[in-house]
Task: inverse folding
């Protein structure tokens, strides 16, 4: 059986800059994939490739037996991939509810919906992301954290199977982050597969089933959260090569000390 | 050239950010006269924002920044510079179409004393490479040379304290070592240094104390030598 979503040798070049090189991984249905990496490592570029905004210069992204790069973005959305943008893009002249209704009306399941049903769906989603109290306000009035919530609601209105979230927690306070994490968990409970880019490491580590680490456009690690944080390459990318070397040295010393302790009691035995 | 620093930098319960987005939450930090303190933390933790808030480049919504007896919270940057608090910004931000000499003189823009010339000579003595490049356009210099100009430009303002942001970014290790030697000389002359540094080992080896910023909050602080062995430093960067 082929993977639910597969990123296959994706490369992306902008002029002289190789933003992504040969990135491959697969995403299981229902997974939460955390995409992390230092600034400029290619996270947003990869999100753009997966959502069809950018056509990769090499490799491909396969979803529902289609190569994403070969279909226009509105088709990608209709295939079931929704996304938010790090730089939020609301229709500023429309109200919050109208913004969400656009997705409910023209998105994946929109064709079968009446305008009224679309607005009802929009209202539901405003409640899900805690924007019901400002649903009648123009989107341009919203604070940045609320605009981030609107991004999520707009994307959810497309009824996606896969939702790409790009930095939706930036600027939220601690309790808002907890609420956002609850929202993500409720989405996965409903069967939505998530690919999440987030600077808040505690948050992304707690919610992800798999972490993919990019550095300078290359995948340097992939695995469960506790696996990737013990990867030498990851420590090196985040804290510098000298710190990583020292950590490795300390770990080795600790291991040797533990080994010595294990051997010692042996000699005391009669 | 450099006056003996007598003013401590004290940041208390600082909140700051951009527009609706709060980046720093309740940040407190001190830098004693003549001290070297490192500020470390992952991308997006708020390190540059904190330096910007201290320098009057980022708006402060709560808490205060004091320097010696003076309250500099929300003060315009020129007053902060006049008080002796200088920033060496990330990416160096030189005047690329001006010469090295002109860049250095711009550092003394606010000074009205008569010792600018002698300070300039002293700095050129300390940084002979800049004498060799004196008439070159700053934009044409190598990265390491540009960073020297940025530091020298700050020195031309007679700082008591310098805030230096990501000095090592994009530079070869040998050049970073040269710049650290320069910082040692500056420090030996009594200037306090608050350094933001991506290379954690360099930062912790060079500084006396350090603060770890994690998503806008100070989550760890202490003597740098202790933080070098503290597993919580890695946790602050990687979440677990």
Result:
């Amino acid at each position: 059986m082929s993977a639910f979503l597969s990123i296959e040798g994706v490369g992306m070049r902008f002029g002289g800059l190789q933003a992504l090189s040969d990135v491959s991984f697969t995403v299981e249905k229902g997974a939460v994939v955390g995409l992390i990496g230092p600034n400029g490592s290619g996270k947003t570029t990869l999100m753009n490739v997966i959502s069809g905004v950018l056509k990769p210069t090499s490799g491909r992204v396969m979803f529902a037996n289609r190569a994403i790069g070969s279909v226009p973005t509105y088709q990608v959305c209709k295939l079931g991939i929704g996304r938010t943008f790090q730089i939020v893009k609301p229709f500023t002249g429309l109200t919050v509810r109208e913004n969400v209704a656009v997705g409910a009306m023209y998105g994946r399941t929109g064709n079968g919906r009446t305008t009224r049903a679309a607005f009802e769906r929009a209202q539901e989603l405003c409640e899900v992301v805690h924007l019901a109290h400002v649903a009648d306000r123009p989107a341009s009035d919203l604070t940045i954290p609320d605009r981030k919530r609107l991004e999520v609601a707009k994307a959810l209105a497309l009824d996606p199977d896969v939702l790409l979230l790009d930095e939706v927690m930036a600027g939220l306070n601690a309790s808002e982050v907890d609420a956002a994490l609850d929202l993500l968990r409720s989405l996965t409970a409903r069967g939505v597969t998530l690919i999440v880019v987030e600077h808040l490491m505690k948050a992304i580590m707690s919610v992800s089933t798999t972490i993919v680490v990019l550095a300078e456009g290359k995948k340097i690690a992939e695995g469960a959260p506790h696996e990737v944080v013990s990867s030498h390459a990851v420590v090196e990318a985040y804290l510098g090569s000298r710190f990583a070397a020292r950590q490795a040295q300390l770990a080795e010393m600790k291991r040797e000390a533990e080994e010595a302790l294990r051997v010692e009691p042996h000699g005391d035995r009669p | 050239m450099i006056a003996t620093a007598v003013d401590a930098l004290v940041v208390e319960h600082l909140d700051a950010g951009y527009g609706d987005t709060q980046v720093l939450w309740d940040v407190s930090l001190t830098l004693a006269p003549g001290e070297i303190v490192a500020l470390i933390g992952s991308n997006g933790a708020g390190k540059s924002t904190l330096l910007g808030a201290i320098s009057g480049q980022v708006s402060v919504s709560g808490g205060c920044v004091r320097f010696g007896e003076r309250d500099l919270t929300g003060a315009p940057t020129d007053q902060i510079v006049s008080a002796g608090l200088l920033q060496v910004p990330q990416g160096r931000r030189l005047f690329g179409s001006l010469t090295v000499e002109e860049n250095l003189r711009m550092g003394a823009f606010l000074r009205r004393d008569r010792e600018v010339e002698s300070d300039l000579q002293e700095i050129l003595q300390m940084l002979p490479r800049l004498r060799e490049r004196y008439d070159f356009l700053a934009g044409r210099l190598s990265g390491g040379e540009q960073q020297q100009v940025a530091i020298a430009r700050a020195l031309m303002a007679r700082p008591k304290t310098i805030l230096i942001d990501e000095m090592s970014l994009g530079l070869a290790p040998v050049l970073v070592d040269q710049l650290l030697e320069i910082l040692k000389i500056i420090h030996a002359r009594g200037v306090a240094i608050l350094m933001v540094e991506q290379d954690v080992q360099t930062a912790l080896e060079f500084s006396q104390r350090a603060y770890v910023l994690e998503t806008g909050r100070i989550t760890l602080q202490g003597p740098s030598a202790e933080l070098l062995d503290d597993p919580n430093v890695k946790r602050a960067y990687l979440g677990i």
